[in-house]
Amino acid sequence: MASVTRYPKTVIDKFRSPKHARAVSEANAAGRAVSFECGSLVAVSLRIGGDAKIEEAGFKTSGCAYMIAAAESVCERLNGRELRSLHLADDYLDIGTVPPERRQCIELVREAVASAFAEYRKSLISEYHGEAALICTCFGVTE
After folding, report:
1. Residues β-bridged to residue 46
2. How much is the pTM?
């Protein structure tokens, strides 16, 4: 009898050996998302340097292989990137085709990343004590 593979190879590869499945030490941004559909949780933690570059990204999840692969893919692509070069699009999710019934797994990872960025943005705004006018509250850009 032929064996049936439930997940695509790209998902299996990331699921079997995730390198970023951990909370980031000294993280200054963290976000999470929960699925009421399947009961999964994904948490993303980031350490963002003073140069607005992501120094380290990590995740924890109770989700399926698709969620683990998506979180791993996102963390791989976020590490070393400047905040201004990021957009919340599928260009940083490299796990291949996702069936419609598993699309919510990917959306949860996106929500967790967006939540982490929102937390980081709030911390920048609340800590701002500069003399120059604050032009962009998104990431604390001044004149």
Report:
1. 29, 57
2. 0.79
Please state, in angstroms and rounded to a whole number, the distance separating the CA atoms of residues 56 and 45.
8
Digit-coded pLDDT (tens) for 81-140:
988 877 654 455 566 677 778 888 888 998 999 999 999 988 887 765 556 665 665 555
- The first and second tokens of residue 42, run together, are 């994904």
Cα atoms in the 13 Å half-sphere on the side-chain side of 28: 14
Sign of CA dihedral 7, 116, 91, 99: positive
Q: How many beta carbons lie within 10 A of that of residue 113, not counting itself?
A: 26
**Strand partners for 142:** 134
Question: Which DSSP helix (H) or strand (E) runs through 60?
Answer: strand 54-61
**Pseudo-torsion of CA 138, 110, 27, 23, nearest 10°?**
180
